[in-house]
TrEMBL record:
Entry keyword annotation includes Cytoplasm: no
Gene Ontology MF term list: S-adenosylmethionine-dependent methyltransferase activity
Lineage: Bacteria, Pseudomonadati, Pseudomonadota, Alphaproteobacteria, Hyphomicrobiales
Organism: Bradyrhizobium cytisi
Name of the protein described by the UniProt record: Nodulation protein S
InterPro entries linked: NodS, SAM-dependent_MTases_sf, SAM-MeTfrase_NodS-like
Length: 209
């Protein structure tokens, strides 16, 4: 699927009141419940990053548990809807950009990226996005990933899905937990995984850790 076609498809979907049925679908509610549980496995979040907010359904759940939360999405309309939904909180920062371009001065102790990476055109861009996320993850921090499976994503016209991305992520991070969420339709089958960025040993002046 080309970038232009992807943008057009997302624009059409975001025009609906509940795009992707994130609020009223039992499968999506369970997916968000598990995403939140994985995200909060180490307690409250000092500095979090959510990549791809859609209409803000998960942002609304995550925000109360973060001291600071940065939210990015490639679609300005998604940012607008999510910002409106979470306007009661003042600790959220927003950016209409994609993970290939985004950078931050500070590291994040939590990064959440769900149902996003399969929109990238090819594996090279997926690897670039993953490398960028890993660079922004603090030592000891956690990355929570979710996606439809490879077979489902390819049926939708994408290059790859959960299994492929998890394999790439484990090249740099340690997988801690994996959860499968499955609904009633063939499209409702995804994997969620939590990864930890290994602590880097501090080096003393004498060269000893």
């Amino acid at each position: 699927m080309s970038v232009d076609n992807t943008y057009q498809s997302l624009e059409r979907e975001l025009a609906n009141d509940d795009p992707w049925r994130l609020d009223d679908n039992p499968f999506e509610r369970e997916r968000h419940t598990q995403l939140l549980r994985l995200s909060l496995s180490s307690g409250a979040v000092s500095n979090g990053l959510e990549i791809g907010c859609a209409a803000g359904a998960f942002t609304e759940k995550l925000a109360p548990h973060c001291k600071r939360l940065t939210v990015i999405d490639v679609m300005p309309r998604a940012i607008g809807r999510a910002c409106q939904r979470t306007k009661r909180w003042s600790h959220i920062s927003w950016a209409a950009t994609d993970i290939l371009q985004f950078s931050a001065a500070e590291l994040f102790d939590l990064i959440v990226v769900a149902e996003v990476l399969y929109y990238l055109e090819d594996l090279t861009r997926m690897r670039t996005a993953i490398d960028n996320m890993v660079k922004m993850l603090a030592p000891g921090g956690h990355l929570v990933f979710g996606s439809a499976r490879d077979a489902t994503c390819r049926r939708w016209g994408h290059v790859a899905g959960a299994e492929t991305v998890i394999t790439i992520l484990t090249e740099a991070l340690t997988e801690v937990e994996r959860v499968q969420c499955q609904g009633q339709s063939a499209d409702e089958d995804c994997l969620l995984a939590r990864f930890r960025n290994p602590e880097r040993s501090s080096i003393r002046p004498n060269g000893r850790a």
